[in-house]
Amino acid sequence: MKKSKAIISFCICAIMILTSFSVLGYMDDIKENNEDNKIVYLTFDDGPTENTLEILKILEEEDVKATFFVIGELANTNKEILKKVEESGNSICVHTNTHKNENYRSKEIYFKDYDAAYSKLKELLEKEPCNFMRMPGGSSTGVPSKVVLKSIRDELNNRKINYVDWNVSIEDAMGINIPVERLLCNYRKEMSKKNLDKERIVILMHDGASNSTTPKALPSIIKDLKKNGYKFKTIQDIDENEFINLTEKKLINRYNEEKEIN
Q1: pTM listed for this prediction
Q2: Which range marks the domain in which residue 70 is found?
């Protein structure tokens, strides 16, 4: 009888141990899956310039990639820098050709500028540019009237051009060479927003001529994102599932389902 009780006790202990290992393993899987689901897209507008070269150095040192939304006229002026962006494995997309507010006067003027930028990148890269772009000021920009802005977004949709927004900004375009600590403060403030969906982060930064402090802030930003388990991807890494995910999170094609102007 005592032997039977001992066997039963041993079996119960064994089951409990195996169960605990199974639960621990399951929790590890959950943790791993959660980490896999945390993706960040570093994006830079307004280059290429000499500041772009500094950013490329940091990206290489940190072994991460980014997406550059470029200005056509600057790409033409800084062909070698553009080539370095491409050769380093980063994504290159259209931002604008001239970055002038007057491009928002009408849909026709806007797409004359966009088409010029697209053609210039196609010539310089010797291939069709990426089918993703970013509107100057984002898809909610207050520069044009609501009617013109909606017509531009509708035409992008008709052309099957995907426009990219962001959910975190370091606000480095709010002045000239903003102090590094201010940029990092802006980053921390944005990352701590209560309504921020931290599963997908698209960070707006700039590599224009007046953004020489952005490369100085970048290493701290990248290290913080790595510490918090983020994987770094570029626009070129977006597959069908990720496209759907980013669309649902309103980070790309935010207004494609709009029916009327509010």
Answers
A1: 0.86
A2: 37-248
